[in-house]
Amino acid sequence: MEHGSILVTGGAGYIGSHVALQLAARAERVVILDDLSRGFRQATLGTPLVVGKVGDPDTVLKLLREHRVDTVMHFAAYTIVPESVREPLKYYGNNTCSTRTLLECCTAAGVRHFVFSSTAAVYGIPADGVASEETATLPINPYGTSKLMSEWMLQSVAQATPLRYAALRYFNVAGSDPGGRIGQATPNATLLIKVACEAAVGKRPFVSIFGSDYPTPDGTGVRDYIHVEDLARAHLDALAYLRAGGASTTLNVGYGHGYSVREVLASVERVTGQRLTVREEPRRAGDPGSLVARAERIRSELGWRPRLDDLDTIVRTAYAWEQRLERDPWAT
Hints:
By secondary structure, the protein is α/β, with parallel strands linked by helices. The chain has ten helices and 15 strands. β1, α1 (14-25) and β2 (30-34) form a beta-alpha-beta unit. α2 (57-66) runs parallel beside α4 (88-109) and α8 crosses α10. The longest helix is centred in the N-terminal third of the chain and has 22 residues, at 88-109. The N and C termini lie far apart (38 Å).
């Protein structure tokens, strides 16, 4: 069966660009929609780019029809937890309302498959710090809530139309393309490994530990860090699953084990050979103490297997990317 084109929303951003690159390597027909508010032209690496907003129905519907899109991979979202706490309506507007518009366009254009970039933030603070797909969804910040609302809409659309979906709940994404072609270039980033590697190359004077009194082995937050290349491949596995007739599904994407903030900083110092200046600060609003995936289902349902499940490997690619950005800064 001949497949249509794939629309990657937010494909000039960090995760979307890695997925688009892997799709292109498999000779898929890909088009990117990105407003470049947080993405970068350089990250598209020659994949066709339409500059526009996911919340603009005229742009989206025209794009879906002109490119004969039958699959949408939706990454266009704001993702910074503290910002979502300060500016909740910004997150509901961009993450939830724009997704509603996108889904409306998808149903009008007959899109068959939808792969959704969701988040482990939908779980909030699980009692034991571990989340499976059956864990109650009780988000504690607007970012997580905005994504959960989008999941609900997606479920309802799939019940009412032929569209089928895979919603992937990410844990903590880090690292970059091992070939050094793309990576996270967002100014004022908040992801720990990115921040620590920026400090290692001298871009930041220090690294903050937000909370050292959590009920964890060393008092600092514990997260399940997943290499962006493994995460990207999960989207291609989800696409293959849907094309083979798989039912709509919601899956965690993580390695199933966590590292504390102190363990991450020790890895950065070990890999880079740089001593970091570290400051301990109060907890940030909306941050759980521990959040680790139970991720057996994605292995059994999609056949996904991680290839880069090693903290030092994740840090090594992230650091190499920061060194490249020092030589060749990106701009939108």
